[in-house]
Amino acid sequence: MKRKDITKTLELVKPATSDQLPVPIFNDFIFGGGVVYAWNDQLAIMGPCPIQEYFAVKGATLFGFLTNSRAKEVSFTISGDDIIIKTGKSKMTMPYSIRDTFLFEEPDDNWDVELQITPELMEGIKICLVTSSEDFSLPALMGVSVIITKNVHLYSCDSDAVSRYLIGKAKKKMNEGYYTLPNEFCHSFMRVFNKSAAASGVISINKEWAKAEFNNKYKVYGRVIENDDPINYEKLIARTLKSEPDYIKIPKGLNYALLRARVVADVESKRTIFNIKDNKLRLNTETEIGNVKDIVKLREDHPDIEVAVNSSLVQRSTLLCEQMAILDNCTCYKSGATLFQILSNYE
To answer: What's the mean pLDDT in 288-298?
Structure first.
């Protein structure tokens, strides 16, 4: 078989290996039945492979051997208790594990929801990952929630910000539901979809698993996040806003003003003061290493107000959205009916 082809597949599968876990099979590439995959107890990534025999070998060792070869072809031969891998004039012998040691079995095809992988879905997950928590003390927030009512929405929260992204109307066969896809699964399926040049795919979800299956035979499985008391995002947003704010177009020049504020703010994790008066937004960032002040003219009327914000988080949202509103307890951002974000102000 072609060494480059199998190396490319292993590169996509490799993120599902883990040498931090004590179970040896979680370190391995697992071959057999025309598939190679890796599994770390939370995530499985599977790719097509011509090898039919079933065996598992240490992933880092095999990948290192193949990536450091320049041979065009590679062969795998079982010999006693070992696998012999040949590339050109090079040969490596490795111990292998048998099929009885494999821990992962593909879940039955009993899914509650199926979503076509569209550019809108990919964009929505990408944006929601920006405000999905990376804090292991908040495991329930470490993912993107798919909430199905009359519409399909994506939500995420990192305790500082909330994102909501509208995918579209729910199809007739979709039941109402709430499912949270873990960050690792979302990052992995997007990476595999893009790097394997898949043309289409489907995400299937139930209360235990999520599966992304692509037309080129790659699959990604992840355990969904269990949460007995999930966030009611719409109630959280309504409680924060109290009423619909008046939005203005994000002014030209704000992005560079925020970049300048961050030169000093990011170093010491300092706040930036937003002061709006006479339709001019004044930014003031005071730190031990220096003070930065700016004025940005607003093209639309906005009530006078003064708040303290995180310039990094504000810039993140202004680059994604078209309109903004500054309130006494938060700032809000949106692009039409599709994308909405809300950020907490400093006390």
So the answer is: 96
